[in-house]
Design goal:
- The protein is mostly helical.
- The protein has one domain: P-loop containing nucleotide triphosphate hydrolases (Rossmann fold), CATH 3.40.50.
- Helix content is about 35%, strand content about 5%.
- The chain is built from 5 helices and 2 strands; from the N terminus they run H-H-H-H-E-H-E.
- It has a two-stranded parallel sheet.
- Helix 5 links the parallel strand 1 and strand 2.
- Helix 2 runs parallel beside helix 3.
- It is globular and about 40 Å long.
- The site of zinc ion has 9 residues, from helix 4.
- Zinc ion binds next to helix 4.
């Protein structure tokens, strides 16, 4: 039981190319990254299970990776990737927006986003 990982986590794709059935989204995001035209915010809509969080996590990891290479695959070796994999990244914040939606939550979020990233290029809130 020590190594138990929820299947949604265990089988969550970790690269754009392993996401199934959302090629229009993954291609658009990959093009945005390779042409250095990254928007300030992205809004993913859809019912649960279609891959909103998955794609957002891959995107966050890729734009902060130090050497994503030509195929935009996070290297898993740089400091940013390692931190992300161990859930200790100081740049990528994952918050449960479905429950943290009060005025006070948003106030604290506004305070946090003023702080520029300490390592890496982007500060990302999912
Ligand atoms: Zn990396």
């Amino acid at each position: 039981m020590e190594n138990f990982v929820v299947s949604a986590r265990k089988y969550r794709p970790t690269t754009f190319d392993t996401v199934v059935g959302q090629s229009s989204i993954t291609t658009t995001l990959k093009n945005a990254i390779s042409s250095h035209h990254i928007a300030q915010a992205y809004l993913f809509c859809g019912p649960r299970g279609v891959g909103k969080t998955t794609v957002a996590r891959i995107f966050a990891k890729t734009i902060n990776c130090e050497n994503p290479g030509e195929n935009l695959v996070p290297c898993d070796e740089c400091e940013s990737c390692k931190a992300f994999n161990h859930h200790r990244s100081t740049n990528i914040h994952e918050l449960d927006a479905a429950s943290n939606n009060s005025v006070d939550n948003i106030r604290s979020l506004i305070d946090q986003v003023r702080i520029p990233p300490q390592v890496g290029k982007y500060s990302v809130y999912l």
